[in-house]
Design brief:
This protein has 208 residues and is of the alpha+beta class. The chain has helices spanning 3-30, 41-44, 111-119, 137-147, 167-189, and strands at residues 37-40, 54-58, 60-62, 67-71, 77-87, 101-106, 124-128, 156-160. The protein contains five helices and eight strands. Helix 1 runs antiparallel to helix 5. Keywords: Membrane, Transmembrane, Transmembrane helix.
């Protein structure tokens, strides 16, 4: 494979990454507002399609059961935590929200301090994302037990402290993707610059 083709493939990869990032943020921007809607847990859990994906939840309690995912070869590095929410004042016999609500705490480098900070709050602000995804089977089974559910397909996941996406950032990301693809196409079909060959040496010696 020629050098310009390798470079073109690298640019295509960069373009796909930018396209994925913009494509993930755009639906959130289309389905939400920069100002979060203040809703109770009961209100949020009553519908699978909230009118605003940017919310502040009130009137809730954290479940005594939660799941911390780990990574690394020894599975001892905390990665993220899933914290189910219960209705305020509920017991094990109380009815649960129609759709379970789970708080996602991502990138927990200091898990004890981070989880203490989150669980001490009386209001939770974040973005409702695409549900329970990319979770290992063992962690998924624990989360099913914590939420008293048979499956998590209808769970509402709130990624806490995630900022609402900005339109200018999304547009810039798509423009970057287009630029990467354009440069990649140019690089792939451009002929390689020929290398200069050293001129042949001229033998200036004369035979008698």
């Amino acid at each position: 494979m020629k050098l310009n083709q390798v470079f073109a493939l690298f640019l295509v990869f960069c373009g796909l990454v930018a396209l994925y990032m913009g494509g993930f943020e755009l639906p959130l921007w289309l389905n939400g507002n920069a100002t979060p809607s203040v809703v109770t847990l009961e209100e949020l859990g009553s519908s699978a399609t909230p009118s605003n994906v940017h919310v502040t939840i009130t009137d809730f309690e954290f479940s005594s059961l939660y799941v911390v995912e780990t990574s690394g070869r020894d599975r001892d590095d905390p990665k993220r935590a899933w914290l189910p929410l219960n209705l305020q004042g509920s017991t094990q016999f109380s009815p649960e929200p129609l759709y379970p609500v789970i708080v996602l705490v991502d990138d927990i480098k200091a898990p004890t301090a981070r989880l203490q900070d989150v669980t001490s709050r009386t209001q939770l602000t974040g973005i409702i994302t695409s549900g329970v995804t990319g979770i290992r089977e063992e962690a998924k089974n624990k989360l099913l037990k914590a939420t008293k559910q048979n499956n998590l397909s209808e769970a509402i996941v709130l990624e806490i402290d995630r900022p609402f996406p900005e339109l200018k950032t999304i547009v810039l990301t798509f423009l970057m993707a287009i630029a990467f693809f354009g440069v990649a196409a140019h690089a792939a079909y451009s002929p390689e610059t020929p290398t200069e060959e050293s001129p042949e040496e001229i033998d200036e010696t004369f035979s008698p």
